[in-house]
Every structure is written in structure tokens, then in C-alpha cells.
């Protein structure tokens, strides 16, 4: 199954296709139960390590946003959609 994800932030819109979409807001981080080692996903100070495009630095197949992200959306995030 494929999903179309649409984003709207700071007057900008973006849309992309994906096979998996996950949303979590206002929750306590619960990364310890996710077995991130199996996905080769590195953590720094309790958050997933990311590049400027919100891609996990240790596993380029993983994108992260929200509370578990090491930092917020990149100013050029539309470019990565």
C-alpha cells in the first residue's frame, strides 16, 4: 500500500509518496522499546541523529521528524520531499 503525505508549515506545502507513514504528537519519547540497534539507528542525547534533511545519519532509509528527531525541520525540507 502507498500513502500520499501532504505537509503545510510556515506557508509552505509539500507532498510525497511513501509506503509507511507514522505520526506521533505530544507523547513521551519511547525509543527504548523500538530495537533501534536492529535498524542501525544511532541515538544522541536521547534523540535520533539526523542530517539537515531529517534523514537518519546511520541508516539513510529512515527519515525522522517530531519529538524523537535530533533537530527540527530544515529550512529547505521541501527539497527533500
Q: What's this entry about, in short?
A:
With 81 residues, the protein is an all-beta fold. The chain contains no helices and four strands.
Describe the structure.
The protein is an all-beta fold. The protein has one domain. The chain is built from no helices and four strands. The chain has a two-stranded antiparallel ribbon with strand order 1-2. A two-stranded antiparallel sheet has the order 3-4. A hairpin with a 2-residue loop joins strand 1 and strand 2. The relative contact order is 0.20. The C terminus is likely disordered.
Distance between the termini: 19 Å
Estimated share of beta-strand residues: 15-25%
> What class do helices, strands and sheet pairing give?
mainly beta
Write out the strand line-up for the largest beta sheet, numbering strands in chain order.
Answer: 1-2
Count the DSSP helices. Answer: 0
Residues in helix, %: under 10%
Radius of gyration: 13 Å
What does the overall shape look like? globular
Order of helix and strand elements from N to C terminus: EEEE
Number of DSSP-assigned strands: 4
> Strand count, sense and closure of the main sheet?
2 strands, antiparallel
Count of spatially separate domains: 1
Spans of at least 5 consecutive residues with low confidence: 73-81
The overall pLDDT average reads 79
Amino acid at each position: 500500500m502507498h500513502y500520499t503525505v501532504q505537509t503545510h508549515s510556515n506557508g509552505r506545502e509539500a507532498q510525497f509518496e511513501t509506503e509507511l507513514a507514522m505520526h506521533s504528537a505530544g507523547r513521551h519519547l519511547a525509543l527504548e522499546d523500538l530495537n533501534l540497534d536492529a535498524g542501525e539507528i544511532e541515538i544522541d542525547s536521547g534523540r535520533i541523529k539526523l542530517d539537515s534533511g531529517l534523514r537518519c545519519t546511520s541508516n539513510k532509509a529512515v527519515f525522522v521528524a517530531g519529538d524523537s528527531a535530533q533537530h527540527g525541520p530544515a529550512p529547505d525540507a521541501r527539497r527533500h520531499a
